[in-house]
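Annex B.
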Amino acid sequence: MDRRFHFISGLPRSGSTLLSAILAQNPRFHAGMSGPLGGAFNNLLGELSGRNEYSVFVSDAQRRRMLKGLFDNYYGPEYGAEVVFDTNRAWCSKMGQLKDLFPQGKVIACVRHVSWIIDSVEQLIRKNAFQPSSIFNYQPGGTVYSRSEGLANGDGMVGYAYNALKEAFYGGDSQNLMLLRYETLTSDPQRAIRAVYDFIGEPAYQHDFDNISYQADEFDLRAGTPGLHTVRKKVAVRERPTVLPPDVFRRFENDIFWLDPALNPHQVRVV
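Sulfotransferase: predicted structure tokens.
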């Protein structure tokens, strides 16, 4: 099958699962939650590097074929979709490799005010107070302060994705990147999805934003975080007060660089 690949990446808790659930309504598309290919991609790159004594027998052309083969073989004939969206936060850090392997591929990075991302994770942790989460390596201790610091550091769930996003945004391959704001996706899904279709060059499809369906209950339960990938049936803005202490919330309030045109030298599309 002559299949086209695109990529969903960006910040956690910023609408990537919702975006996938909407796109999956199109029978020509396949999209879902974060999968294993990002990790497999990194592992294979490492195994084909100089740390393996047999790497002298591996050319760059072979590396490219093997890496591309991960996608071709993982998304086998049983998927049946003409267009595949693979989701992983790592893709923002792999813009150059993805452009080489998939010249027509686009990366859609979901973004959201970082304070509300930290808030969203904290709300889940409190909601599942008797189930330690994989987000924090199933450790039951800690406070809202240590959890927010752990999320935001360079190796944390949010910090890593944020740094990868900046790398993609300011890198030389940003012409293949679009940022989709969570606020736009939830308040005006029609405009958001229309922008996605325009960006990837696909004909429009009539989506039903009042009847979204997505289930990952088994995965979320195993991760000790029920609700992690829950998607409500109707796309809508749901306002509520933050559960974070004021000083924690304010710590991240200046991290929304994508809203300042002066900080967008490559004119990356922000929707």
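The first strand starts at residue 4 and ends at 10. The first helix runs from residue 16 to 23. Further annotation is deferred to the next reporting cycle.
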